[in-house]
Design brief:
alpha/beta; Rossmann fold; 2 domains; 5-stranded parallel β-sheet; globular; Lipase_secreted; AB_hydrolase_fold; AB hydrolase-1 domain-containing protein; triacylglycerol lipase activity
Length: 294
Amino acid sequence: MYLPAHASDVYYSVVAARKLFGAFLTEEWVSFGHSQGGGAVWKLAESQYVRNNTSYLGTVAVAPATFAASQIFDSFLDTVTGGSNGTASGMATGVGFLPLLPTAVQRIIPSYNESILAPTLRKRVTMVENAQICLEGVLGLTLDLNRSQIASMEGALRDRPTLLKWQNMSAPAQGDASPAPILVIQGQQDTAVRWKTTVDAWERACAAGNEVHLRLFPTQGHRPSLSAGAPEWLAWLDQRFDKKAAATAASGAGKAPVKKKCTKFTREPLNIEYVRAPTDVDLKPYLGPLSNSM
């Protein structure tokens, strides 16, 4: 269960840092993550580690990995139905991660017998496993393949219940409570994380009573959203520490903060002509395929 494990790692890294550098650190702390790290800190925000920790002030999750299996199914559905994730390329989002999925599932559900991969991709995955190719190489396996060479539709339907079972063992935004606010930054030109999947996670977390603030950036991709959203998330983090300091000064230390309503805003550029918005096109390992196969 990769996100719960990562959440534990994040928490205990804070514990370790305090043992080594405690004299230089504030008592208050926040968590921050991008991509898989974004999913990890979101999971941490809803975990028992911080549930009663009044020093924990909140989380920033940028382009977070949430519903990994659902994203792949929905991305393929986007291409089949003629819809898209809203990216300029119209390509399927995050499908480059599919080669990693069967192994991840089998490590948690050993009885899982993969049938979602098409023969062409399965041969490549076998080659990669034998050669112990690095992550970047694995993420590039699908770049020159069309949909029929990547996945078996019949196999996908057969595997779907098991893949969703694995996903639900790990994903955030499934009803667990977060004691502090979460800020989510998501680019709508992201080719690694389907932005509609992030919106779905935001809706689920809010429905569970959590305070989650979603900011969408229409012109930004997976990595660029980290920089484009920086003015927002840096100011938000400053505000979290300022509010804690003010509450402490007013003898409110130790009291549970009052949760506010969720918010969702799209950050439209003032003048698109002058916006620097590098796409994910040059980030080839993270591209979904299918750009010239339909």
